[in-house]
Amino acid sequence: MSRTTWKSKFGFLMAAAGSAIGLGNIVFFPANAYRFGAGAFYLPYLIALILLGLPIIIMELGIGRVFRKGFPSSMNEVAGFKGEMTGWFAILNSSVITMYYITILGWVLGMLIRSFSSLWTQVAVPEFGIEAGTASIGISHFFSIISSPGTVALVFVVWVLNIFCILKGTKTIEKIVKVLVPSMWVFMIIMIVRGLTLPGGFEGMLLLFTPDMSILSSLEVWKGAFSQIFFTLSLGFGIMTTYASYLPKKSDIVNDGLSVTFMNCTFEMIAGIAIFTLLFAFSISPKASTLGMMFFVMPEGIAQFPGVTVQLFGILFFTLLLSAGLTSSMSLLETVASAVIDKFAISRKKALGIIFGVGLSGSIMFSLPFVVDPELNASGTLGLTLLDFFDHWAFGYGLLLTGLVQTILISWIFGAERMRSVLNEYSKWKIGKWFVPLVKFVIPAIITVLLVSGIVGEFSGLYGHSSTGNIDNLHIFALIAWILFTVGGSFILAKMKERRQA
Ligand code: TRP
Question: Which of 12, 244, 352, 500 has a Cα-to-Cα distance from 340 of 20 to 30 A?
């Protein structure tokens, strides 16, 4: 069975950019920027991009181009059992992220459906003591969606859409991304023009670029910026390796890595401006939470538009989120599919069946509508509470941990110098000698500091959730479940015997 390849370079670039551009660009970036002192966030962000983002994306692409296998099998070539286990860890950890990412997309779909009619008036949600007319538009609808059993159906629909997009691998992916990714730019440009022409919009943009330098001494800001770079560029997921494994052997991946990074980060800046203009124009102060940005703040801003433009922009915004999310989530499902097919030589149909079954169950867990916190002190429903806890470990630690171990294995076992020559083989821009100390020492040191500071913070309750009773038990359950699933699962999968392709 030969591997499929991308039909065109454009198709590959749109797929990789589609993976990178996601909810991270449209909501997490502006939310983080706001939370961490607006303009000041740019500095750590840019440093993280140059020191970590660019070298790692190029290495991940390089591994895929050379070995032309799924992520765990490629990492096996890099460093044997250790490498393969790291590969499976990355895949299982990102599967957890994908499960709840798809749940969030289910809620986005719910908001999109309501945008056509009722979203612009408040509803009552008696489960949470929200009466009609008391809470903001977004808040009332969001909690009404997540606490209704129908939310499971929404999640099911998004899963079916995802599987449909990767049904025939690169063939279907390429068709979908060629339409969705360029339209996302068009949508975003409409949003930014609208934002900048609002009274006060321009000042909002300036706010985004006005640094508050005092915040730079906080380690949490730096950890935020580095995690954001990992997430937004889809690093630590194994995705870039998988997508590059479908490239022709003689591809210039240095150039590809730069192009994808450029598209992703430009989109992120544009999204940041669009959202800050809106916030400022309507003097809304976003809650620190990122979900709040997407579901409460934006609808509140859009609802203040004149006349029919409310519905128009509402539908536009949620369609944008859904498309951006879909092209990201499907990139990971393809990564899992290729990993399983390459190791166990099963048919694509069977692989997709397994992924659908396991993944959908996980997403349903994150959408369980039972109310656990009627006062809304924390998350409200059981699903959202679990989502918060799993996100804390999988996003906050898993991605950085993958990045750390994979960088060490590549630079020390495979060899940094050898990696450099692989990268330079067909590239127009040659990577200089600085690459070697950067990946051998600087990147591992930075990630170690961030991880250690995070763990120290856990003990002093700095980043930890402060809650009591049953919710605490849930937090412990999430931690144990995450470790068993990722570390235990990756050990077992790496131990299993590879089945040769017939
Ligand atoms: N880069 C995406 C973003 O910015 C995140 C992402 C990429 C992702 N691939 C994914 C999230 C797979 C979940 C599953 O949003």
Answer: 12
CA of 149 to the centre of ligand 1 (A): 26
Rounded to the nearest angstrom, the distance between the alpha carbon of 19 and the centre of ligand 1 is: 6
Q: What is the mean pLDDT of residues 457-477?
A: 68
The finding on whether 232 has its CB within 6 A of some atom of ligand 1 is yes
Q: Under a CB-based contact definition with an 8 Å cutoff, are residues 41 and 221 in contact?
A: yes
Confidence of residue 421 (pLDDT cuts 50, 70, 90): very high
Name every residue whose Cβ is closer than 8 Å to that of residue 20 and which is 6 or more positions away in sequence.
Answer: 232, 233, 234, 260, 261, 263, 264, 328
Ligand 1 in reach of 439 Cβ (< 6 A): no
Distance 330 CA to ligand 1 centre (A): 9
Residues in a beta bridge with 371: 381
Closest CA to 100 of 474, 352, 387: 387
Taking the C-alpha atoms of residue 318 and residue 138, their distance in angstroms, rounded to an integer, is 12
Q: Write out the two tokens for 150.
A: 């129908």
Q: Which residues contact 38 (CB under 8 A, 6 or more apart)?
A: 207, 208, 209, 210, 211, 212, 276
CA–centroid distance, 13 to ligand 1, in Å, is 16
State if residue 335 touches ligand 1 by the CB under 6 angstroms criterion. Answer: no
| CA of 25, closest atom in ligand 1 | 4
Q: What CATH fold (topology level) applies to the domain 9-495?
A: Amino acid/polyamine transporter I (1.20.1740)
What is the per-residue pLDDT across 159-186, written as a single tens digit (0 to 9) for each? Answer: 999 999 999 999 999 999 999 999 999 9
* Minimal-distance CA residue to ligand 1 atom 12: 329
**Stretch (H or E) spanning 357:** helix 348-365
Question: Does residue 19's CB lie within 6 angstroms of at least one atom of ligand 1?
Answer: yes
Nearest ligand 1 atom to the CA of 101 is 13
Token duo for residue 171? 């063939």
The CA distance from 134 to 400, in Å, is 41
Give yes or no for a contact between 493 and 404, defined as CB atoms under 8 angstroms apart. no
Q: Is 18 in the pocket of ligand 1 (CB under 6 A)?
A: no
Q: How far apart are alpha carbons 423 and 378 in whole angstroms?
A: 47
- Domain boundaries along the sequence of the chain: 9-495
Q: What is the pLDDT of the chain when averaged over all its residues?
A: 90
Query: Is residue 463 packed enough to be buried (19+ CB in 10 Å), middle (13-18) or exposed (0-12)?
Result: middle
Task: Count the neighbouring beta carbons within 10 Å of the beta carbon of residue 388.
Answer: 20
Alpha carbon nearest to ligand 1 atom 9, residue: 328
Encode pLDDT of 136-159 as tens digits: 778 888 889 999 999 999 999 999
